[in-house]
Amino acid sequence: MNIQWYPGHMTKTRRMIEADIKLVDAVAEITDARCPEAGRNPILDELIKEKPRVIILNKSDYADEKITNQWKKFYENKGMAVLICDCRSGKGVNFFPALLKKKLSHIIEKRNARGFKGLALRVMVVGIPNVGKSSFINRMSNSKKTKVGDKPGVTRGKQWVTIDKEIELLDTPGILWHKFDDADVARKLAVTGAVKDEVMDIIELAEGLISFLKENYPECLSERYNAQTLENIAVNRKMLASGGVPDTLRAANTLLDEFRSGKLGRISFEQP
After folding, report:
1. Cα distances (angstroms) measured from residue 44 to each of 10, 20, 95, 186, 193
2. Segments in the chain below pLDDT 50
């Protein structure tokens, strides 16, 4: 699976991050709890460098809870602060300010000693497309200041959002890398919606998801569809084309939509 999808605004985003990283005290990197490592852009390490970082494991309500907790320990052992949350429901989001202040306590103490008590902490929010950056900021600010969508590539420009007198967030568009050489990473990102479906072979993608589920979460297929193939899903859901032929494309789209909305259960694609 060779995916190449790098819209022009992502090149602009890279330049934006390079220019603005010096303006912030820390970076909040949001990744999908179902595939945390696959969903972390390696370019960001190069751009962020030594800035303090908070890893936000979003969409945790869709991920295997036991595995998500393993990822939390994994990143904490690397010196990062970790927040497990679900921006859709708001679960866990309110713990972010306290976690951030604990992570940046040395900066706060230094400012207080120099007479700059109360100066707002500035945080850049980064991540790949459709991972929940805007939803996170909207939850934090209790408003809809940023554009939110269930398709990648919604946010196109940077914007500052004041959370309170103590925290300011810089929202940035999602950024992917030029080419996915690892087919496994490509599949994970495509299945979770980080890449536009229009550039994908939907049937191939859905069959790959079925193969993974049969090996790791077989009950999800049997309980939801009473089926193990796209053809059977189409038949059981009465998705038939002319002549009674199973409409596998429709079945594939249904499978992907229901997986992405959490209807198949809590599923994780990788372990630390």
Report:
1. 12, 13, 24, 17, 20
2. 146-157
| Contact present, 30 and 131 (Cβ < 8 Å) | yes
User: What is the pTM for the complete model shown?
Assistant: 0.84
Residue 31 pairs in a beta bridge with 57
Round to whole Å and give the CA distance between 271 and 64.
10
Residues 146 and 155 sit within 8 Å (Cβ to Cβ): yes
Nearest of 27, 199, 200, 52 to residue 127 by alpha carbon: 27
List Cβ neighbours of 267 (8 Å cut-off, separation of 6 or more): 34, 62, 63, 64, 213, 216, 217, 220, 259
The token duo for 242 is: 């002319």
Taking a C-beta distance cutoff of 8 angstroms, is the pair 111, 119 a contact? yes
Asked whether 177 and 41 are in contact (CB, 8 A), the reply is yes
Look at residue 242 in the predicted model and tell me its pLDDT.
Answer: 87
Burial 79-88 (b: 16+ CB within 10 A, else e): ebbbbbbbbb
Q: Which residues neighbour 111 within 8 Å (Cβ) at sequence distance 6 or greater? A: 117, 119
Q: Which of 47, 35, 206 is nearest to 131 (CA)?
A: 35
Contact assessment for residue 86 and residue 92, using Cβ atoms and an 8 Å cutoff = yes
Cα gap 140→169, rounded to integer Å: 9
Cα-based distances in Å from 51 to 22, 45, 254, 270: 9, 10, 41, 26
C-beta separation of 137 from 145 below 8 A: yes
| pLDDT at 152 (0 to 100) | 35
What are the structure tokens assigned to 263, written together?
């209807």
